Each structure stands twice: as structure tokens, then as C-alpha cells.
């Protein structure tokens, strides 16, 4: 049996730190400079529902992850960290994970959380969870006693906890009595610092402080999705304001306290406003295009390489982001565990002569290259527009196919003909780390659908998924990335930031993947 | 008249069935799958298939259609794929929002549009007529999203008079309603005011040139009586037709205006449903809006009879 401390040295680094801190942080002071008030925060998208098992929408996550918690989650640096689990032991054969639950955790309905609730949550997730492949390695789970939850895997999967702690569609813990609820019909009862007061679709969601919340005193402050959380305000109202100009105006006049996203056009004006504080996650969205490897001419690797050689990423990112971007050297951002520059020489080549040479070698005869794009996400449309012009300049017969987002997405997923490049943005895919990112291109995949999977990439991905040490997995990631860029399995153009803003009287707000309302307070 | 109305109501049933059939077919023809939208571009094929099964989208189309009609017969429009809420419940929640803003907008349209149209006709070929005509032309030319944003800048940011968005029901707080609904109602009304002004003006000019108006004036009737009693009644027929059309546009909900002002009405509900391919919501919403428009047409037809005895269907009004 490997105890949490041994395990933590490999993966749950935050959990180890937290465990070591346990007991010392108990007497810490409140994180709130002041308690009370209603904080109003504007979201850029409509919240389709609050059932966190059944929605992968970021708008759902933005709100619901202030109410729900998980056994393990991600800390500020995206490392797995224990949340509702007091400890986690991994068996020596890597097949069994035993979670001891934190004591005295209550749900918003007043009921004490036990392992039966955890098991019921996993059961529901395995039936209707959008990202249920997280549980694919799990053979079964057991509840030997009220405070213990055991997961048994079919085979050892060293990256299992990385998967389980992913926040794209997390396995949040709900009361067992709600576990039979159909998708999107879940009563919203969690263990988080806020509880649901009112949800008016297309208008607002109002949360209130959960008086029975038990903070995780192993930490001193909130960290990522976990850590020590404390609700400072009485209520939080998330307003759905999809029009950027209206959202920004509401912030300027003080009608709301914060906004999830500030358009580039408004940032300069707001930066000069002493009543408003801007904060930014510099590396947020990876602007990505991927080719259709089943349809000519992009089924030919030389054509794909010619296309990659022809492109000027700076021009593309300038148009996509209104000038706010950072070029990237691969599929992870600098500072992340799996970051590697392997294969980066293939990016941003701006070499039309090389492109023409590769096209000649490929026997390219002016076949159409269809760029499948949409207008709902302007950065995707602008990327395709500039890319089309650059390809034309290199002698490639590029043309746009503009559909709305659902139609374009469906075409890219279900059809292997009629398109050559598809545009998207990777946010959680990148944030969750190397294995999650490369999973996008590993068979079976919607992104990379050649007639035959790429053996070299698949071999590297296999090691990335099952390598016993982080170093082993990091080396495999580098190999997989080098192969993916050489074969042009996806094109990471660059990173775009996420800029958020709050009024000057709001303290404790820190930009993150969701607007975290714990530790946020309003000055009197 | 009651028999006529009842007959028209009964005629609505097959029409609504036809609408539902056409909308069902059109929805299925449009590419885009709600399971794909819900799963996102990162979902695995197995996950997408599982979502499809959960949503019942793996059933044959004819079975989905039969199931829709079976539910419809029980008054059940199904459940929204995205909101998880019964479609009928969502529509009933949103309908009053759109209805109140539409009525507010209609009142602004009728009062301002008719008044300016009448004044322009009475001051034909004067500077007043020219100013009204130019303003009306601007009204029909301005896109309402631009107008909405400019109003936010003016009334919310610069003057601080009105909130930038949101909605308060008049039953909860009348002042709150007026504060939140004025800008959306104005943004919707501006185009319609321009339209109604132009129609009222041209119709009024026609009527004022008629022999019976000349006779009324020759009899020495005051100009107010000539205009309000004799001319206006005859202006009303085409004006009611236009008002009916305007109201049908307003009642369908404006996706753009409701989005700009964060108003949770029918327009934003259906707009979002279309973007996310929420089939039951689109289907139920279209049926709901179609039924509303048919009722509106019936009301307009009945009103013709009120203003013009010649078109009363049974001669009694």
C-alpha cells in the first residue's frame, strides 16, 4: 500500500502540501475583510443548467463549481489536490485507490456526507456524465464503511487521478437521494460554500452563503478549484449578459461588481477607470485548427506540411485576438508540467518557397482546400479568413465553408468528406495537462481521423497514458507532440488571454478558469 | 361574430398541425446535432452516442414524430434538452416578458406613430411634414442593435437614468418595469414608429382629399371633429392591418433586442434553442408563436368589423 505521502510525491503534490499543513491552519483568520452584501457578476454566456454531471458548458461550471465539490480536484497550478477526501491511498499494484472522507461535511440540505453519497454520485456519473470516459478504467467501487470509498481499476492507470480530478465535467458529489435524477433535472444540492437560492434561465442565478459549510483547513486560502474556501458575501447573483458592450457598460456604471470577460476594444478605456480593476489570465485559450486526414488533399501529409510551412502565425493571431496573443511552441503553455518545445520548428515557418516545393512533391494539382469555420466565435472565423489568404498566396486553392457552430461541429465530427480544416479553441483541454491534450488526437478521436492511426503517435500516447513516472510521461508527451506537429495532426497557432474585471471595491477576486466567489468581499 | 370567431379557432387546429409537421421536418433537415453540441468538440464518439441515447435521438425519425404528437395530445410539448425544463413551462414563464415589452412597445408605436403621421398629413408640404418624414425614414433605417447600444451609452452610462439591462415584471414593481423595459421597448418601437408614421401620413392624406371630408368642412364642422371623427375612423382600417403586423413582429420576440438588454423573453429563448439545436424547445416554441400569431390575426379581423360595418361578417358586428 502506498500512502498519500508517497503517492503525493508523484501526483497529488497539492494534497501532500495540504496534509502537511493540516492542524497548523486551523486557527487562521477569516479571509474576508468584511462579510455581507450581494455581489453581482456578469457572465458572457447563458447558463443552460446547473447539473454539473450532465453539462460540459463553461457557463454551467462557472456557477455550479461554487456550489459543488469533488473528492479530488485541481489546485492553482493545475496539480491534483484532495478536496472532500481526507486522504487517498494507492495500492502497490496501482489497482486500488482508497479515499477516506473528510468528517463533518454536510450537504446544503443539512445531511451529512457519507461514502454512500460518493458511490451514488459515481453511479449517476457513470450513467449520464458527459465525460464518463473518466471512469472507463474503473472496474467497481466499494463502501466498506461510512467514511471510506474504494475505487478498483481494471488495470493500473498512473494518470487516473489526473483524469478523475479533471474539471471539464467533474464528478461532483451529490446526496444519494438525488442520484436517480435524469440529466439536467438534478436538484442542486452540493457541499460547497454557496447554495442555490434561485435560477432564472436566461436571466440570472442567485446563490447564498451556505451556513453549514466546513472549510478545508489543510489550506490557508482557495487554490484552484480546491483549498480553503470561505463565502464572504451573503449572496452572489450571476447575471447572464451576453452582449459585451452592455456588460461593460453595466460594470462602468456600477450596476454590477464584475464581469467574466472584457472585450479587447473596451480594455483600454476600462484600464483608465480608477473604479475598475482589470485582471488577466495570460494563457487561456489555445487557438487551434485541425486537418481532415481522411479527405484529399489533406489526407496527404506533404500537403499538410506545405500548408503549415506557408503560414504566418503572427498575422493569424493578430486578426484572431485583436493583437492580444502569445505565440506558442507546442500544445502546452510554458510553466506547465508537460510543457515541451519538441517539434516547434514546424510552427510559424512563413516559408512559401518550402510550401511550394512540398506541394510539388505531393503532386498537388490545385484541389480545393475547404476551411470549415463559423461566425459565432469571431476568433475562429478570423483565423480561417487570414489562413485562407495565406494559403492562396502560396498557390493553394483555399476557400471558406461558413456554417453556424453546431452545424460546423457536427460536420467535423460526423463527416469525413467536404472539409479540410476545422477551427476550435482549447481551454480545459490544455489546462488539464499533457495526457488530456494528446487524447484529442489519439484514436479513437474526432480531431484526428486518418484511415489508419499513426503508429508512432499512438505508441507515444500509450506511454503518456501509462508511464509510471512523471518524467517518463513527460518524455512521451514530447515525442507525441513532435510527431503531431511533424504530421500536422493539429495546429496550435497561439494563446489568447482572458481578461476579467471587477469594481475597485471588490477585494479577493483572482482570475481563474471559473469566477470563484470564495474569499471575495465587498469593501464597505 | 361569435360563430365566425369559433370557426376560425377550429380552423387553427389543422393549421397548427401543419406548422408542427413542417417545423419538425425543417429542424431535422438543418445540420447540427444537440448531442454533439452538448458533448463539445472534445467528447469521444462513445460519449456522443451515449448522450444521443439519453436524449432519445437514436430513435427513428418517424418514432420521434409520433412520440411528439402523442405527447402533444396530452398537452405536453416535451422537455428542453438543454434546460431540462418542460417546454410548455419555459414558454409560459417567458411569454409574459415578451408580451409586456411588446405591449409597451406597441403603445409607444401607436401613440407616437399615429400622432406624428396625422400631424405630418395635416401640415402637408410644410417644414413639419418634412421633419417628420425625415425622422420616420431614419426610424425605419436604423438597425435596432445599434440603437439599443447607443441608448445604453446615453441613458445608462452618460445620464445614469436607466439600468443597462435585466427585467422586472410589472406585477412585481411597476417603476422597476418601466426602468428596465423602456430601452428595449423603444429600440423595438423606433422602426415600427417610422413605419406607422409613414402609413398613417399617406392614408390620412388620401382620406383628407375625399369628398365627404370636403363636405364636412363645408358644413362648418370644427377641424378637430373633421379629423378625429370623420377622417380618423377611415384611416384606421389600413392602420389596424399595420398594427397587427407590427404586433406579430413584436410578439415573436426580438432575439437581438432581448440579447442586448438581457431580457429573458421568447426571442432569446428560441434564439438560443436554435443555436444549440434544442429540438423540443424549437418545435414547441414555433407552435406557441404560430398559435399566438393566428389568434392575433383573428383579433385583427374582428377589429375590422368594429371600425368598418361593411366588413362585418354577419352584419351585426
Could you list some keywords that capture this structure?
heterodimer, A: 524 residues, alpha+beta, Dipeptide-binding Protein, domain 1, Dipeptide-binding Protein, domain 3, 11-stranded mixed beta sheet, 4-stranded antiparallel beta sheet, 21 strands, globular, B: 317 residues, mainly alpha, 0% strand
Any overview of this molecule?
- The complex is a heterodimer of chains A (about 525) and B (about 325).
- In chain A, strands 1, 8, 9, 12, 13, 14, 15, 16, 17, 18 and 19 form an eleven-stranded mixed sheet that branches. Chain A has a four-stranded antiparallel sheet with strand order 4-5-7-6.
- With about 525 residues, chain A is an alpha+beta fold.
- Chain A folds into two domains: about 5-35 and about 45-190 and about 215-225, Dipeptide-binding Protein, Domain 1 (Dipeptide-binding Protein, domain 1, Alpha-Beta Complex); about 285-495, Dipeptide-binding Protein, domain 3, CATH 3.10.105.10.
- Residues about 1-25 of chain A have low confidence and may be disordered.
- Chain A is globular.
- Chain A has 16 helices and 21 strands.
- Chain A has helices at about 5-10, 15-20, 60-65, 115-130, 160-165, 245-250, 265-270, 300-310, 315-320, 350-360, 380-395, 405-415, 430, 435-440, 455-465, 470-485; strands at about 40-45, 70-75, 80, 85-90, 95-100, 140-145, 150-155, 195-200, 205-210, 220-225, 225, 235-240, 260, 275-290, 325, 370-375, 395-400, 420-425, 490-505, 505, 520.
- In chain A, helix 9 packs antiparallel against helix 11 and helix 15 runs antiparallel to helix 16 (about 470-485).
- In chain A, strand 10 (about 220-225) and strand 11 form a beta hairpin.
- Helix content of chain A is about 30%, strand content about 20%.
- By secondary structure, chain B is mainly alpha-helical.
- Chain B has a domain at about 95-265: MetI-like (MetI-like fold), CATH 1.10.3720.10.
- Chain B is about 75% helix and about 0% strand.
- In chain B, helix 5 (about 85-120) packs antiparallel against helix 6.
- The mean pLDDT of chain B is about 85.
- At the A-B interface, helix 6 and helix 12 of A face helix 2, helix 3, helix 7 and helix 12 of B.
Amino acid at each position: 500500500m502506498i500512502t498519500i505521502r508517497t503517492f503525493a510525491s508523484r501526483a497529488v503534490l497539492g494534497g501532500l502540501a495540504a496534509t502537511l499543513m493540516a492542524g497548523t491552519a486551523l486557527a487562521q483568520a477569516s479571509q474576508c475583510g468584511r462579510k455581507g452584501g450581494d455581489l453581482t457578476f456578469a457572465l458572457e454566456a447563458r447558463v443552460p443548467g446547473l447539473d454539473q454531471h450532465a453539462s460540459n458548458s463553461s457557463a454551467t461550471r462557472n456557477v455550479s463549481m461554487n456550489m459543488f465539490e469533488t473528492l479530488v480536484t485541481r489546485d492553482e497550478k493545475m496539480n491534483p489536490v484532495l478536496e472532500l477526501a481526507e486522504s487517498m491511498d494507492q495500492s502497490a499494484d496501482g489497482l486500488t485507490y482508497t479515499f477516506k472522507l473528510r468528517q463533518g461535511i454536510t450537504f446544503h440540505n443539512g445531511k451529512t456526507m457519507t461514502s454512500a453519497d460518493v458511490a451514488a454520485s459515481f453511479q449517476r456519473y457513470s450513467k449520464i456524465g458527459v465525460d464518463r470516459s473518466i471512469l472507463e478504467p474503473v472496474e467497481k467501487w466499494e463502501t466498506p464503511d461510512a467514511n471510506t470509498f474504494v475505487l478498483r481499476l481494471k488495470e493500473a492507470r498512473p494518470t487516473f487521478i489526473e483524469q478523475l480530478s479533471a474539471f471539464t465535467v467533474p464528478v461532483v458529489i451529490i446526496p444519494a437521494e438525488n442520484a436517480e435524477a435524469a440529466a439536467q433535472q438534478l436538484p442542486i444540492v452540493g457541499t460547497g460554500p454557496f447554495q442555490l437560492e434561485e435560477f432564472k434561465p436566461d436571466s440570472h442565478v442567485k446563490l447564498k452563503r451556505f451556513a453549514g459549510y466546513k472549510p478545508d483547513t489543510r489550506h490557508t486560502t482557495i487554490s484552484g478549484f480546491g483549498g480553503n474556501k470561505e463565502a464572504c458575501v451573503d449572496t452572489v447573483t450571476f447575471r447572464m449578459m451576453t452582449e459585451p458592450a452592455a456588460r461593460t457598460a453595466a460594470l462602468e456604471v456600477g450596476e454590477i461588481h464584475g464581469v467574466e470577460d472584457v472585450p479587447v476594444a473596451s480594455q483600454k478605456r476600462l484600464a483608465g477607470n480608477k473604479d475598475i480593476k482589470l485582471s488577466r489570465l495570460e494563457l487561456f485559450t489555445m487557438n487551434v485548427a485541425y486537418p481532415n486526414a481522411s479527405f484529399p488533399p489533406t489526407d496527404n501529409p506533404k500537403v499538410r506540411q506545405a500548408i503549415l510551412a506557408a503560414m504566418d502565425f503572427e498575422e493569424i493571431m493578430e486578426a484572431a485576438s485583436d493583437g492580444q496573443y502569445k505565440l506558442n511552441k507546442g500544445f502546452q503553455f510554458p510553466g506547465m508540467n508537460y510543457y515541451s518545445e519538441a517539434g516547434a520548428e514546424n510552427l510559424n515557418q512563413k516559408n512559401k518557397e518550402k510550401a511550394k516545393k512540398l506541394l510539388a512533391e505531393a503532386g498537388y494539382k490545385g484541389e480545393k482546400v475547404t476551411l470549415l469555420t463559423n461566425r459565432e466565435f469571431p476568433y475562429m472565423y478570423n483565423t480561417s479568413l487570414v489562413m485562407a489568404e495565406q494559403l492562396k498566396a502560396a498557390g493553394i486553392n483555399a476557400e471558406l465553408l461558413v456554417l453556424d457552430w453546431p452545424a460546423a461541429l457536427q460536420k467535423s465530427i460526423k463527416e469525413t468528406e467536404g472539409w479540410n480544416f476545422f477551427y476550435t479553441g482549447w481551454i480545459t483541454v490544455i489546462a488539464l495537462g499533457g495526457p488530456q491534450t494528446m487524447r484529442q488526437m489519439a484514436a479513437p478521436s474526432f480531431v484526428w481521423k486518418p484511415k489508419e492511426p499513426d503508429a508512432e503517435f499512438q505508441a507515444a500516447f500509450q506511454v503518456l497514458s501509462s508511464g509510471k513516472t512523471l518524467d517518463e510521461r513527460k518524455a512521451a508527451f514530447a515525442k507525441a507532440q513532435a510527431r503531431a506537429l511533424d504530421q500536422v495532426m493539429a495546429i496550435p497557432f497561439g494563446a489568447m488571454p482572458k481578461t476579467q474585471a471587477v469594481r475597485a471595491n471588490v477585494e479577493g477576486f483572482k482570475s481563474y478558469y471559473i469566477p470563484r466567489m470564495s474569499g471575495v468581499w465587498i469593501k464597505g | 361574430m361569435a360563430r365566425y370567431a369559433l370557426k376560425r379557432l377550429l380552423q387553427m387546429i389543422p393549421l397548427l398541425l401543419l406548422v408542427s409537421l413542417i417545423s419538425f421536418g425543417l429542424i431535422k433537415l438543418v445540420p447540427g446535432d444537440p448531442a454533439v453540441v452538448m458533448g463539445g468538440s472534445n467528447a469521444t464518439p462513445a460519449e456522443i452516442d451515449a448522450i444521443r441515447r439519453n436524449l432519445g435521438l437514436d430513435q427513428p425519425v418517424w418514432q420521434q414524430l409520433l412520440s411528439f404528437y402523442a405527447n402533444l395530445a396530452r398537452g405536453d410539448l416535451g422537455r428542453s434538452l438543454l434546460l431540462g425544463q418542460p417546454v410548455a413551462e419555459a414558454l409560459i414563464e417567458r411569454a409574459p416578458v415578451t408580451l409586456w415589452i411588446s405591449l409597451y412597445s406597441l403603445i409607444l408605436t401607436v401613440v407616437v406613430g399615429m400622432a406624428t403621421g396625422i400631424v405630418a398629413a395635416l401640415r402637408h408640404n410644410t417644414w413639419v411634414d418634412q421633419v417628420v418624414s425625415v425622422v420616420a425614414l431614419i426610424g425605419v433605417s436604423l438597425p435596432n442593435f445599434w440603437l439599443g447600444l447607443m441608448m445604453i451609452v446615453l441613458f445608462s452610462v452618460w445620464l445614469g437614468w436607466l439600468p443597462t439591462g435585466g427585467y422586472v415584471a410589472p406585477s412585481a414593481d411597476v417603476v422597476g418595469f418601466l426602468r428596465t423595459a423602456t430601452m428595449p421597448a423603444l429600440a423595438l418601437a423606433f422602426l415600427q414608429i417610422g413605419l406607422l408614421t409613414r402609413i398613417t401620413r399617406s392614408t390620412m392624406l388620401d382620406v383628407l382629399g375625399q369628398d365627404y371630408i370636403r363636405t364636412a368642412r363645408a358644413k362648418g364642422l370644427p377641424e378637430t371633429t373633421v379629423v378625429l371623427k370623420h377622417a380618423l375612423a377611415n384611416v384606421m382600417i389600413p392602420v389596424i392591418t399595420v398594427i397587427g403586423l407590427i404586433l406579430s413582429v413584436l410578439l415573436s420576440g426580438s432575439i437581438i433586442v432581448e440579447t442586448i438588454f438581457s431580457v429573458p423573453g421568447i426571442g432569446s429563448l428560441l434564439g438560443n434553442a436554435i443555436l444549440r439545436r434544442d429540438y423540443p424547445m424549437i418545435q414547441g416554441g414555433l407552435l406557441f408563436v404560430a398559435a399566438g400569431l393566428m389568434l392575433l390575426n383573428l383579433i385583427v379581423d374582428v377589429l375590422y368589423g368594429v371600425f368598418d360595418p361593411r366588413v362585418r361578417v354577419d352584419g351585426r358586428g
